[in-house]
Write a structure and sequence with these properties.
Layout (H helix, E strand, L loop, with lengths): L3 E5 L10 H10 L2 E5 L14 H16 L4 E6 L1 H10 L9 E5 L7 H15 L6 H11 L15 H11 L4 H7 L4 E6 L8 H7 L4 E5 L6 H4 L1 H16 L10
Parallel strand pairs: 1-2, 1-3, 3-4, 4-5, 5-6
Helix pairs in contact: 1-10, 2-3, 3-7, 4-6
Length: 247
């Protein structure tokens, strides 16, 4: 059966951040669902809650699983949520997992500092968007520059979403993930902090660090990220001999 991909966006952005990946997967004939989490994108008017966010991922995965083996792909906050989902005690129907730009534990001093920075930017003129636009204009290629903001920015959901991540038990979740997994980070990603801990807890996972790349690896190096999607597709569509579920 043809692989299916479920793409989970990061904080403040929306499904539009995956435009390059959706185009690539569609061209390959791979089914793809780029979802919007509550409080983001087309669901901006909804409050963000952890339960609804995880239910959103689950609904998309189960729908896609009716059509083929599912590759779950999450970026930043979406990656952290996807780790929690992929590592549930009752394993969800996924065949592979890509966790991008999310190898950090969202708690303690680090999370508090991130929330304080976000709240400070939110108090600036334009809620700090001119600064964000300057960063995007100077780091992303023209082909993907508009993708992060095309669905709007979820300023109002940001702080509550960040706070909610602190209750996720990612360490236990990582130990329970039993599908092929790739951690993909940019070389200059601030969320690389715990990448060695993550790979110790999930030793069969592959850690890939993309050189000269920031936190926004999907948009800064879209062709590299799409090539890594191709690796996951080949893994689930053509498993090695003796792999459970092989036909």
């Amino acid at each position: 059966m043809t692989a299916q991909a479920v793409l989970v966006h990061g904080i403040r952005t929306s499904a539009t951040m995956w435009r390059s990946q959706v185009a690539h997967l569609t061209e390959r004939g791979v089914g793809v669902t780029a979802l919007d989490l509550p409080g983001h994108g087309t669901r901006m008017a909804e409050p963000f809650t952890l339960d609804v966010a995880l239910d959103t991922i689950d609904a998309a995965v189960r729908s896609a699983a009716a059509h083929g083996p599912v590759i779950l792909v999450g970026h930043s906050m979406g990656g952290l949520l996807s780790i929690a989902y992929a590592g549930r005690t009752d394993p969800p129907p996924i065949a592979a997992f890509i966790a991008a730009s999310c190898t950090a534990l969202p708690r303690g001093v680090g999370l508090a500092a991130y929330r304080a920075l976000a709240r400070g930017l939110d108090r600036l003129p334009g809620r700090g968007q001119p600064i964000a636009d300057w960063v995007l204009d100077n780091t992303l290629p023209a082909e993907t520059r508009a993708d992060f903001g095309a669905g709007g920015y979820a300023y109002d959901a940001q702080d509550v979403a960040l706070k909610s991540l602190s209750v996720l038990d990612l360490l236990d979740a990582l130990r329970r993930i039993a599908v092929p997994t790739w951690f993909i980070n940019g070389q200059y990603d601030q969320l690389r902090l715990n990448e060695r801990l993550f790979t110790r807890l999930l030793p069969e996972a592959e850690l890939i660090v993309v050189p000269r790349t920031s936190h926004l690896v999907t948009a800064m190096r879209p062709r590299v990220f799409n090539a890594l999607l191709d690796v996951a597709i080949a893994t689930v569509e053509h498993p090695p001999a003796g792999t459970p579920g092989e036909t």
